[in-house]
Amino acid sequence: MVGFDTEGLGEELIHACQRSAEQPPRADGCGIVVCAGGATMLTNAYVLIRMLRDVLGCRLPIEVWHIGPVEMPALIAGILEAHGCTIVDANAVRERYPAEIHDGWQLKSYALLHSAFDDVILLDADQVPAIDPETIFAWPQYRDAGAVFWPDIIDLSDQNPVWTMVGLEPRSMRSWETGQVAVNRTRHWRSLWLTFEINQRADTFYELVYGDKDTFLIAWLMSEAKCVVVPHTPFIDERFLIQRDFAGKPALQHRSNCKWSLHDEPVRPIGALHQEECEGFLEDLRAVWNGLLFVPPSRPTGALAAERNVVVQRSFALTVMGEAPSELELLAGHQIGKGRDFYRSNWYVDAVDDGYRLVICDASKPSFTLIGREDGSWKGQFLSANGREAVLQPIPVRSLTDADDRPGLADALIDAARRGTPGDVIDDESLVGALRLVERIEPGTLDRAAVLAGRMRQTEPVVSEKLERIVGELRSAIASEGERPRDRSVNNFFNPDLYRRI
Q: Strand pairing of 62-66 and 85-89?
């Protein structure tokens, strides 16, 4: 909100809070919220979730929030769902509850407002917990106050203009480090809403505080809400903080300056917790994902059907003129398994005038273009090697003809959506939700639904039209490739007029 009038901002925030709903939307039980979108944060979120599930034995439900389909490849969504996570697209939620959300900092307060849980632990994706977070809900301090925060290693300065801006008495006090927050939404709904309203004015507040973290502190002070701050400062390393419990023991390790990466050698700080286990989880992820946010262009139904045939075939021999053949695995989710290298990162099938074209991409652009032939092979050029001739031939594994017409989950979902309804009626809402979920778990489900819609075009035109519309709407969510904008207030952390080192 560039040009926002800061005079009377505190009063405006209070009025905005008063205009909010008196009670939060219905929510039940306990759970964890993680905001993660884009290649880096999804890599870290995967390691966090594997830590929670496989090392710490945490069985709390987990919501993973992101901003739009471009931040959450279907392949990764399916993997996270297999570990008991619910994937939440903030853009879809914003259709009902409008908000300005341009980065992960703004997303955190919004996700807390609209989570399905009443008792919520918000964890940054680059966390490696030392304890099962569910135990936090049993702490006497949490049960008493309904909100627990952790201290940072700096003070919010009394010279910071944010105090007078919101109508609070200037003070120097310990900043809050919100890589972790534990809060009961019902008890602290108005404080959470006020936090959200402050983050809605990011262009004003992010000039004075470091992202979202002290927006929680300001909101709790403005609303005079009860909370408890852990009295022990974190164990400090220049690359991570280990936050403690009320007894002073390690509880949560925030790897803020040594995030996990699929491409770089892991940072191994002395004293880091669960380093070996986390590196093992990284290897598991490398086996199925190249770490790129690859979004293919929109393609017609025929190309998608051809793409599905390629996935069923899976194994090919790639021969580039002047080189020995090598095996190439073309996997679901536009991934490449065996044979992946710099020039062979992702793939897709597109339509051309004389048939279909298989495109293999490096990290940023096409590196192979190959035209399909009647015998199931593909012939074209290795663009990144001066256009040398290249041929992709299927390695006999299974029958494409039999596999192509094998009923799958799409058939069962469509049948279930029609059961108990008149012939020309289909339960659109339930089918849309089911197809969206299953496509993440079994890529190619939408392709199969499109094929079935085409087959019904003559005999059941109404149902066919509805199916084609549903498939089209689900595919239209695919946006152009991109990452979140760079965090806007990173330099505030080092500004002595805003924060003071302790």
A: parallel
Cα within 13 Å of Cα(274), Cβ side: 26
Tell me how far apart the alpha carbons of residues 310 and 91 are, in angstroms, rounded to a whole number: 32
Angle at 147 between CA 125 and CA 200, to 5 degrees: 60
* C-alpha separations of 426 from 109, 117, 414 in Å: 37, 32, 8
Q: What is the mean pLDDT of residues 233-256?
A: 94
Q: What CA–CA distance (Å, rounded) separates 215 from 178?
A: 10
Residues 6+ apart with CB under 8 A from 142: 136, 148, 182, 228
User: Could you give phi then psi for residue 335, rounded to 5 degrees?
Assistant: -95, 160
Q: How far is CA 472 from CA 74, 435, 452, 454, in A?
A: 16, 12, 14, 13
Q: Which neighbouring-strand residues pair with 346?
A: 335, 361
238 band by pLDDT with thresholds 50, 70 and 90: confident
Is there a contact between 83 and 53 (Cβ–Cβ < 8 Å)?
Answer: yes
Q: Give the DSSP letter string of 400-411.
A: HHHHHT---HHH
- The C-alpha atoms of residue 476 and residue 185 are separated, in whole angstroms, by 34
Q: At what angle do helices 74-82 and 39-50 cross, to 10 degrees?
A: 10
The pLDDT of residue 420 is 52
| Angle at 117 (CA atoms; ends 440, 251), nearest 5 degrees | 95
The model's pLDDT over 410-433, given as tens digits with 9 standing for 90+, comes to 777 777 676 655 555 666 666 776
Q: Which residues does 449 contact at the CB level (< 8 Å), separation at least 6? A: 410, 413, 414, 435, 467, 470, 471
- Both tokens of residue 249? 């023991």
Cα–Cα distance, 413 to 409 (Å, whole number): 6
Which of helix, strand or coil describes residue 356?
Answer: strand
Cα–Cα distance measured from residue 56 to residue 133, given in angstroms and rounded to the nearest whole number: 9
* Claim: this prediction has a pTM higher than 0.85: no
Could you report the per-residue pLDDT of 380-410, keeping only the tens digit for each? 999 999 999 999 999 985 443 444 465 666 7
Here the tokens at position 278 are 């986390």
DSSP 14-80: HHHHHTS-SSPPP--SEEEEEE--SHHHHHHHHHHHHIIIIIS-----EEEEESSGGGS-HHHHHHH
Query: Residue 481: which pLDDT band, with cuts at 50, 70 and 90?
Result: very low
Residue 186's CB is within 10 A of a number of other CB atoms, namely 12
**CB atoms inside a 10 Å sphere around CB 98:** 8
